[in-house]
Amino acid sequence: MPGESGVEVSYRRSLPLPPDEALAAVAAAAEQWGAAWEPWGEGGRLALPVTAGVRRGVLSGRIEARPLEAGCELVFHQRDARYRLNRSAVLILLFGALGAVAATLWPFFPQLLAVAPLAVVLALSAWFLVSARVRTSTPEDFFDLVEWKAAGESGGVP
What we know:
Blueprint lengths: L8 E7 L3 H15 L2 E5 L2 E11 L1 E14 L2 E15 L1 H19 L10 H16 L3 E3 L1 H15 L5
Antiparallel strand pairs: 1-5, 2-3, 3-4, 3-6, 4-5
Helix pairs in contact: 1-4, 2-3
């Protein structure tokens, strides 16, 4: 995972705003996202909850607002990434895999024919239960929200 090996990962986004307005947009986006934001100096510390498939976690690091000629650049330096596996989703997928194996093997083992319809229903149910709830939220998505908040505050169309 990025950040777990001790290698720093950075995410960048340029905004047509001065640094103080960009940081205000970061604070508003962090509140809406459910992130922990602590401003300090020319940036702040951010603990960003993220999801990645059947994993959930928190990316933490610092954000800097670097002035540019036409606005500023926000840089998120990820220092740490902590992910946890959604065990219930994995368990449901394992049951679905068992159903898929039984549904696939019944031509070779005729005694499985009696459970083949149940196996198909089990496999498809597991797939739809988990895939309908799989979400992904990344630092890029957070920066999209920051950009949207910044456009709203500056009077632009988000």
